[in-house]
Amino acid sequence: MTWVLGEDERGDGPAMHIVDVATRTRFEDEKMQKIGLLETDRMFFDLYCLKPGQAQKVHRHTDSDKVYYVLSGRAAVRIGEEESELRPGQAVLAPSGFDHGVANRAQEPLRLLVFMAPKPPH
User: Taking the model in full, what pTM does it have?
Assistant: First the structure.
């Protein structure tokens, strides 16, 4: 379950919501998993879970920045024309307007935290 703070909830409800990321981990054979953790009208914070061989399609956001932070495993991250392998504890920024994506080319599962703002309209 994603905790979403809407306009009508600001100032009326609890200001703090704690998410236990470890209990939200989920892997599927069919495709990588994007698990919503926290979301407002202006941002989202997700957990991505990729089995070996899975990938996020390279794409771009014209008006949003994205941060990838590796929790476990090794992430092959592409931003623009550059690609690098990130290890646990490392983060990278995908600025708006740049193609970006992530792949798990290693033999172990990959878990990433992903933050994006402003939240794109979909």
Answer: 0.88
